[in-house]
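This is your field. Have a critical look at both lines of this record:
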Amino acid sequence: MSEPIENQNAKQRSGTGFWSVVQSVGAAMIGVQSRKNRERDFTQGKPLHFIVGGLIGTALFLLVVWLLVQYLIATS
């Protein structure tokens, strides 16, 4: 017997782990991503996880740049 379609979809969309999302967001920020990982993200990942990860990644990047500028201004 085959499984119901709902169970198959649930297994297929089980999602990716935290570190996979972090890795994918980081790779997207610098513009490199393997085809295998991109396909995994689109088939198993949930869009909300990548949206939130992207927003957090962008905020962290901006914070680091701001802190670096503040440090450079203070030391010059």
